[in-house]
Design goal:
alpha+beta; two-stranded antiparallel sheet; 4 helices; globular
Length: 219
């Protein structure tokens, strides 16, 4: 059976949306000069990113790697067919890089974007990730006419054993939609993933979280 397509598929708004802030954190696209600060954030207690961020075992290996990554992201942003927008999480006042996030694997036909995230070792367990992800979800689900990304749906996947990552989704009231059996590998075995989601009409833009009753209701 042929899959029906949305008659109005997603495309990146131009110009791209502005940075968003939530209290002490700011989420924005990477800019020129962010490479060294990004490397510093990753290299700050790099072991704290493991095992969930497997890329941190080998990448980036030096400042130049992060400089190249930022430049590659900046060039990708400008492409009309770009479906992956990596972003940094920054301290709102100092501009220090405290983590990474972004919209990944955007499905233009369904206007769905996936969010991933990490927080540097020295800044974990401070609620920064929840505030940053909540701000990014709000920007993602806001219409392009209102300065947002114009997505219809946002999804987040995390390892079933990554309690801190799961708690971000729970605190934001996202709906737990699926459990994917043994779909990701971490040494020495395969493990399950949890899939959370929220739709634009389920998001409370004023409170920066999902409306009550769609899924998790954290205490």
């Amino acid at each position: 059976m042929q899959k029906l397509r949305d008659p109005n598929p997603w495309s990146a708004p131009r110009p791209l949306p502005q940075p968003v802030t939530a209290g002490d954190v700011c989420v924005r696209l990477y800019g020129a000069g962010d490479g060294p600060a990004l490397f510093e954030a990753i290299n700050d207690r790099r072991e704290a990113l493991l095992p969930w961020m497997a890329w941190a075992t080998t990448d980036p290996r030096c400042i130049d790697d992060s400089v190249f990554y930022v430049e590659r992201c900046r060039r990708a942003y400008e492409k009309t067919d770009c479906l992956d927008f990596a972003m940094g999480i920054f301290e709102a006042r100092s501009g220090v890089v405290v983590g990474g996030t972004g919209f990944h694997h955007i499905d233009a036909d369904t206007r769905t974007g996936e969010i991933g995230y990490w927080i540097r070792g020295s800044h974990q367990s401070k609620g920064l990730c929840t505030r940053a992800v909540g701000a990014l979800i709000g920007s993602g689900l806001r219409s392009a006419a209102d300065g947002g990304w114009g997505l219809r749906r946002v999804v987040i996947y995390n390892d079933v054993e990554n309690v801190a990552s799961r708690r971000v989704c729970e605190k934001l009231g996202l709906r737990l939609e699926m459990r994917l059996r043994k779909d990701r590998y971490y040494e020495p075995s395969y493990r399950d993933s949890l899939g959370f989601a929220v739709l634009a009409d389920e998001w409370d833009f004023e409170l920066g979280r999902a409306k009550p009753g769609i899924g998790w209701e954290p205490a």
